[in-house]
Amino acid sequence: MEFLHILVLAILQGLTEFLPISSSAHLILPAKLLAWEDQGLAFDVAVHVGTLSAVLIYFRHDLISIINGWLRAWFGPATPESRMGWYLIVATIPVGVCGLLFNDLIEGQLRSVTVIASTTIWFALLLAAADKMAVRRGNDALSMEQLSWRTIIIVGLAQVLALIPGTSRSGITMTAALMLGFSRQAAARFSFLLSIPVILSSGAYKAIELSGVAQVPWYELFLGAVISGVTAFLTIHFFLQFINRMGMMPFVWYRLILGAGLLMFLANGA
Question: What pTM was estimated for this model as a whole?
Fold first, then answer.
């Protein structure tokens, strides 16, 4: 791969994994629109390792508390940390099962520009509606401490939709949490924590598929992982810093413009 391709794709992955604008769509589109050579499975695994590293480092204190609480609860009373551990596990099950069952369909038929344009627009409108609900709710919004099993099941089921390119995993989980009454900050933090088991499991699955590859371009993979990791860390930090002030509408408008642009591209190419 050329350095420019590595740089662009790694930055796109780092930005879009945690912003509500779909990382899968942004990794697919350069090859579709610019006639770039497909980056291949190995590079996808590398940039996912980068983003996973970023979220693990950023939430390291939360994760240590959650893991310690979850382990101790096996021999003692449940705690908020142990419940959070179970929440993350249970909310990941639906997308994990559906990802395994429908992987061929997703990889073979849902990676088209038409699908990406449609989901980019429709889920932008859904995100806009959820954000307006959060604005009306104001200070009455729920916090992370008020998560419940009902919330977890609904968010977990909503996350299945992220298997469709263009939907955005972070976007659909934030949308679901906002519609259930949570604040922007709580919705974002839970979405980022929930990304950890999802990225870990999908990365492991892709790594297994990659195990039979004879030649691996280690330099390209290392460079992609580092760039995506640094980009993702900065994205998480600044998103959480400014989400209450800027809201979701900048991402809604971006999605609408992108979706409209893709539809125009399809119309001109027809």
Answer: 0.90
